[in-house]
Amino acid sequence: MTDDLSERGVALFDMDGTLLPWDTQYVFSCFVLRLHPWRRLLVLLFLACIPLYVLRIWDENRMKRAYLIYLWGLPAETVREYGRKFGSLAQEWIYPELKERLEEHRKKGDLCLMVSASPTFYAEPLGELLGFDGVLGTDVLLDGRMPAMPELPNGNNKGQIKVERLRERKVLPEHGVLDNAAAYSDSGADMPMLLSCGRRVLVNPSPSLKEDERLAGAECLYPARPWRGKLGKIWKIALFVMGMVNINVRKSMIS
């Protein structure tokens, strides 16, 4: 990214919970499992790894690699194809309020980037459909058939790693705050990115995030979630897994 950002604005959008309400890494796995029901057995192998994380034998990066075991043996091009199809599906879930904000930044000529911990193989197609200038996600090595634990060449694109990658691309300064940048997020995991931007916008923030003194003065957006309470969210995803509904933000607001 070679743009001169001294005058041009920057808008950085987290994806899961910010642009859309769902944890797309989980929903994408459900998307694949609906196409290949037998792969639910592979998920059991991942569940067997959870004690390794609880006991701190494995870190979050390795657990993320292990979670992708449901793709084991699929050709790389098939994974890319599923990513494109999922991206097309996921664009229907974007909060209308966030879509409007993105369009406002685009009209102003701001550099608009999606910065997500989700895998690039579906985050990039979604970002392109939404009109982002670029996408920084968790890169997954796609070469031949998928191994049980695919490599993540740039690590898990989360927390401080997001900021480091943005600095490498000269989007954010090495030190301090970029005053003409706006960061959108729903999560405290994005604190490094939020604090690196002059404008912070919190989407459906938890009380603890909203009350964090470091984010004093941040704008808060409260788009309507497509469920009522935690049980409503679990039930909606359960129906999706069973193939009985399609997750859609606008339609599900009345259900």
Give the helices and strands, then pairings.
Elements: E1 10-13, H1 24-35, H2 40-54, H3 60-67, H4 76-90, H5 96-108, E2 111-119, H6 120-130, E3 134-138, H7 160-168, E4 178-185, H8 191-195, E5 197-203, H9 207-210, E6 219-221, H10 229-241, H11 249-252
Parallel strand pairs: 1-2, 1-4, 2-3, 4-5, 5-6
Helix pairs in contact: 1-4, 2-3, 4-6
Write a structural description:
The structure is a single chain. The protein is of the alpha/beta class and 255 residues long. The protein has eleven helices and six strands. The chain has helices at residues 24-35, 40-54, 60-67, 76-90, 96-108, 120-130, 160-168, 191-195, 207-210, 229-241, 249-252, and strands spanning 10-13, 111-119, 134-138, 178-185, 197-203, 219-221. The longest helix has 15 residues, at 40-54.
Following the backbone from N to C, one meets helices and strands in this order, namely: EHHHHHEHEHEHEHEHH
| Count of helical stretches | 11
The unreliable regions are: 249-255
How does the major sheet shape up?
6 strands, parallel
Q: Could you give the distance between the termini? A: 43 Å
Global geometry? globular
Which structural class do you get from the secondary structure elements?
alpha/beta
The percent range for helix content is 40-55%
Strands side by side in the biggest sheet: 3-2-1-4-5-6
Please report the total strand number as a whole number: 6
Kindly provide the radius of gyration, computed on alpha-carbon positions and rounded to a whole number of angstroms.
18 Å
Quote the beta fraction.
5-15%
Q: Report mean pLDDT, rounded to a whole number.
A: 90
